[in-house]
Amino acid sequence: MATTVPGPRATARATPSETTANAVATTRYVFARIGRTVLTIVISLAILGILWTVALKLLNANTFISKTPLDVFKYFFVQSTLSTMTPGQNRATLASLLGVTLHHAAIGFVAGIVVSVIIAMLFTLVRPIEFMFMPLAMLLRTVPLLAMAPVIYLVFGNGSVTAGLIGGVVVFFPLLVNLTLGFRSVSQQSVDLIRVYGGNRWTIMLKVAIPTALPHFFASMRIAVPGAITGAMLYEWLFTLQGLGAAITTAKTQSMYSEIWAIVVLITVVSIVFYTITTFIETAVLAKWGPNAGKVTTK
């Protein structure tokens, strides 16, 4: 007869009314968290724009090279007699380049996540593997990415593999460390409970360790999202004539400084958007499957 192993918090079956009330409360909490996040981002962007403008004025920066938020706005939306391209053409060009960069970033992002999750689980399930390879991973982490990228390029050549490795390195290390820490943060009482019911290490991983590690996972994801984009742009800047990374080099050689600033603003906004999406997903997932699932904050 098969043994049913309870989760870390075995509770009595909730009534339909309790289930509905909890779902409504969780939904309200998620939307309230999303609203606060969006408001915070809008305020932060406004403050950043003001500081940007003030800094250029105080530093008396060269207006030919340094551009203000208003200059970037004009690049995207206002026709200029100094440019042969219309704002629509500018937007279309950068959107096309952004698509290439996001493709490269996605390769590195997915590769870094998959490899780090697998290795973190192996480190947790088989402790000798961690003792053998974690110091090596930390040693590799100390090597600057700018120094590691040419080596990756020489070994694998130009293409998706190199893009994935360069972007994956940025994602891999913080996720590996935080996930390993999260898997190890399981309470001993939960582990003992599962073992009493006949569970093994894999059962502990599925029932307790993964839910416990979710906050650590999403904390690393918030770092990994902009990191993967940075890795993709570094790959493009060093080795290709594609994407926003290469476009910065081209614009610099042609003294197209408005385009450079527009690319910087665009990639910053895109990184913030993906960071925010990650935060939204984190809020919803932790509310439903996290270690405090069912415990809705009333603040």
Automatic annotation (TrEMBL):
Coiled-coil regions listed in the entry: none
Transmembrane segments: 38-59, 105-126, 138-156, 162-183, 204-223, 229-248, 260-281
Primary location recorded for the protein, binned into one broad class: membrane
Family to which this protein belongs: Belongs to the binding-protein-dependent transport system permease family.
Name the record gives this protein: ABC transmembrane type-1 domain-containing protein
Native source organism of the sequence: Frondihabitans cladoniiphilus
Record-linked PANTHER family: ABC TRANSPORTER PERMEASE PROTEIN MJ0413-RELATED, ALKANE SULFONATE ABC TRANSPORTER-RELATED, MEMBRANE SUBUNIT
Origin superkingdom: Bacteria
UniProt cross-references to SUPFAM superfamilies, sorted A to Z: MetI-like (SSF161098)
Location in the cell: Cell membrane
Membrane topology: Multi-pass membrane protein
InterPro entries membership: MetI-like (IPR000515), MetI-like_sf (IPR035906)
Domain ABC transmembrane type-1: 98-278
Keyword Nucleotide-binding: no
One Pfam family here: BPD_transp_1
Keywords: Cell membrane, Membrane, Transmembrane, Transmembrane helix, Transport
Gene3D superfamilies: MetI-like (1.10.3720.10)
